[in-house]
Structures are given as structure tokens and as C-alpha cells.
Amino acid sequence: MSVNVSMTVNGKPVSAEVEDEMLLVNFLRDHLRLTGTHVGCDTSQCGACTIHVDGVAVKSCTMLAVQAEGSNVATIEGVSDGETLHPMQQAFKDNHGLQCGFCTPGMVMSALDIVKNNPSPTEQEVREALEGNLCRCTGYTNIVRSIIAGAKEMEAS
Amino acid sequence: MEAFNYRKAGSADEAVSTLASAADGKFLAGGMTLLPTMKQMLATPDTLVDLGGASELVGISRDGDNLVIGAMTTHATVAGSAEVHSAIPALAALASGIGDPMVRNRGTIGGSIANADPAADYPAAVVGLNATVNTNKRSIAADEFFVDVFETALADDELVVSVSFPIPAKAAYQKFPNPASRYAVVGVMVAQTGDGVRVAVTGAGPSVFRASSFEDALGGNFSASALDGLSVSADNLNEDIHASAAYRANLVGVMAKRAVAAC
Predict the structure, then answer these.
(1) Residue A132 and residue B100: Cβ atoms within 8 Å?
(2) Contact, A18 vs A3, CB < 8 A?
(3) Does residue B140 fall inside a structural domain?
(4) Count: domains in chain B
(5) How confident is the model at residue B179 (pLDDT cuts 50, 70, 90)?
(6) Which residues in chain A show pLDDT less than 50?
(7) CA distance A34 to chain B (A)
(8) In terms of residue numbers, what domain contains B3?
(9) What domains sit in chain A, N to C, each tagged with a CATH number?
């Protein structure tokens, strides 16, 4: 069966006919060509597919596109202000918070969710809040530094 | 994932009637287990009835000496609820340790207990706190609800509506989490309830169970030292790459003592 879904993605209304079983991440990547949201493990563990649905961080590989009907979806593509990086993105760049970059979109989306709930997180709080995001390159240290620096920059600006 | 028909229900009643009209339907709560299970083809329902539109299934309220949590209330909501923190802080702490933040934002209490994963956290709370599971048909006592691995007393067409937790005098939950999944290798809820001391163990066996020898000892002397020398049998406990049955049996004692100390 197919179904018409409509939602707002990064501020723009979108609509498409999709199969009932289409995952939200595949809708974003294959239909909307928003390929910044990655599919890492496809088993809800790695967090590379993290996006925000109605302001809340979710794993888009474990949600159906049709479940996002009427929702407000934010992906990594909507984070920057044109060519100007968001303070959190800039913090990842400045603090070497990425190596291969595969996990980074999910890390940034989780980071923004962490800061929304806790504007000045401690290192321990960031580490606990990153439970659902896996990185195989960095050893996390620079990711944690990036998020703390990004949080400070966001609070200042 | 195999093809299926998606139906969104606007209410609990509509969900039940929609499921009844499907040949092999399943309720979709948060989907944190069901969707991965369907990706692996371990479940292939022909219809998913999404409960996400049934707003009466969401919410937390006090009903006398009970805390009532709607089936579609997420783990994040329970973990962050001032009402839960003041009534049963152990329950808020348990919810805050399930999975990871994104899983807690979608996963629900009703979905968790209906799935009855042997390593899930909520079954320890339901049994340890002597909760009542309210469905569209009846109320089920905690001790009757969980039957076996992924098996509950729920009929195929029965929907969990809410869980009612009697507020305990004291309670604490301690778990030894799998470092990757955060599922409980062993988790123990200890509570002083109107029904006496209850000790519920998840992760260790095919289904949540009560450690009656621990309950008896703690009933006489509610201190961690009361559990010295006591153990649960390793017979029929779970064994996998993470822990042997004997290791799990030992962990039950360790987690129970920690829970008593945390009460």
C-alpha cells in the first residue's frame, strides 16, 4: 500500500506518495535527496540517522515516514545559516570533533538536543547524553569538547 | 521490511476495532523494538495500527495512592516528570536509564511491557512495585501479567491502556547494563510496599521474577546485610555471550544489595 505524506522539513512543506513501510530516513534521503542524514547500523544503535521531529531527537531509521505525517522535521541540512555554520557545527570544526565524518550529522543533531535540554552541560552529562551516538574514529574526546564549546558559543550568541 | 498496511487510530477504541479487522495486525506504540524486529523479518504483520494518535493513552496522573501512567507515555516523559519524581523517584530513575535519549523519546511504557523482553527494565518496576496493568478489557495484577520470554497475559486483541503503580514507602532499582544496548544483564527493583517487601529481577531469567528468599529476609531486616549468604539458583537463568547463568545469579544478589542500600 502507498500513502500520501505531508510534513515540514527544515521549514519547507513537502509532500509525497510513499509505501507504508518506507522508513523516515529513506524518505529524507531518497525522496528529498537530503543525504546528510546517514544510515549507519540500521538497527537503532548508532545514531547516525538522528534528526529532530517536532523538536525532539529521534532515530529516523526506526520511524516510518508516515508516522511523521504533519510533523516538523529538522535535519542537518537545516542547521547552518546558508554558508555560515551554526555555532555547534563550527565548534566541531574548531575542536576536531570529526574524522571520517560519518557519525557527525547525528552527533550535531544530538548535540543540539542536549543543549536544548541542558544549556551548560558538564563533560559527564555530555558523555551520558551521547549514549545513543557511536563514533568509530575519534574516541569521543574531541566530540565532547566540541559540544561543550558549541554550547558555550550558543549561550553567548 | 515486508510490505504492510499502516493504519493510524485516533483513539484506543478505534485501534482495537482496526486491529480486529486485520488478519495479522499488531499495535505500533513507540516502535523501538517492533520496527527493528520487522526489519529483521522476525515479525511480519500485515497491518500496523499506530497508537500515536490516541491521545488518551498519554499522560501521568495521581489517583489516590497510585501513580497512573498512560500506555503511550514515553520513557523520556516518565524520566522527566515532576509527578513521578515526587511519587516514585525510583521509577523516574529506571526510565532515565532505558536505551539512549533518542530511544527514550519514542519508546513507551505500554510498548515495553507488552513486548516483555526478558532484559527490559519496566517489567522489574511493574512487578517490584506491584502495579496493575489496565487494558481495554480488564485489570491484570503484575504477578499475573508476565508469563514467559516475550509472552504476557495479554490476548492478541487486548490493548494496554495504562499502568497503575501503588506508591511505595521506599524503592530503588539497580541494573548492570549491557554496555552497548543498555538492556539489563540483570536489573533488580526492591520496594517496601503495602504488600510487604518485593524484589523483582529482570534480565536474569526468561521473564521477570520475584526473589522470594530475598523478600523474606528483607521483610525481617531491611538492610543490605540481610541478604548476606542468600542467592538465587542459576538453574534456568539466561546464558549468552554477555554473561553465564552463574554470573547472572551472582549479579542478582549484588544488584539487590545495591538497590536496598539506595532505598
Answers:
(1) yes
(2) yes
(3) no
(4) 2
(5) confident
(6) none
(7) 20
(8) 1-51
(9) 2-78 (3.10.20.30), 87-156 (1.10.150.120)
